[in-house]
Amino acid sequence: MSEDKKNQVSRRQFLNYTLTGVGGFMAAGVLAPMLRFAIDPALKPEVEGDFVSTGRNVDEFTSEPTRVDFTIDQVDAWYESKVTKTAWVYKQDDGSLIALSPICTHLGCIVSWNENEKYPNMFYCPCHDGLYEKSGKNVPDTPPTAPLSVYDLQIKDGILFLGKEIPRKEA
């Protein structure tokens, strides 16, 4: 009978095991959502090729920058909305298209093409007299320190599709 007493769990051991187990489950219940919250964005695959149709035919574009509005689906946590974005699109000298972001790299104001008679054939930012050449390159000695960003673009069946905005580094 002394062997049976050795294999039996005392009250103290039983409470110790029970409280440790319950405490472990409670800690796991509290930490699991926090870990999921921290790790989930890293595990989410990045969507490649998120291109949105502008509904504009490529043949419509000339060497003169044209304002193109397009709508994207934006998801902020649980809130989904449609956001209208803008691009300045034109044909370059080699015949290829380029789509420039209208957002000034100085303070985020919206630039316009050829609307200021003082600066013809230039992108002009009215906030602090920021100037950009037609290529989107910032003019030296003006507030913007970087050129206008470009949109990744694709052409499918003659229709222009725009993707992510890509910042340019050359100044």
Overview features:
171 residues, 3-stranded antiparallel β-sheet, 23% helix
Describe the protein's architecture and organization.
There is one protein chain. By secondary structure, this protein is of the alpha+beta class. It contains two helices and nine strands. The strands form three sheets. It has a three-stranded antiparallel beta sheet, with no helix packed on it. A hairpin with a 2-residue loop joins strand 8 and strand 9 (159-166). The chain is elongated and about 100 Å long.
The N- to C-terminal Cα distance equals 89 Å
Helix and strand composition category: alpha+beta
Give the strand line-up of the largest sheet: 1-9-8
Tally of extended strands? 9
Number of helices: 2
Helix percentage: 10-25%
- Outline the low-pLDDT stretches: none
What's the helix and strand layout?
Blueprint lengths: L1 H6 L3 H33 L8 E6 L8 E11 L2 E13 L5 E4 L11 E2 L9 E3 L4 E3 L17 E7 L2 E8 L5
Antiparallel strand pairs: 1-9, 2-3, 3-4, 5-6, 6-7, 8-9
Give a nutshell description of this structure:
The chain is an alpha+beta fold.
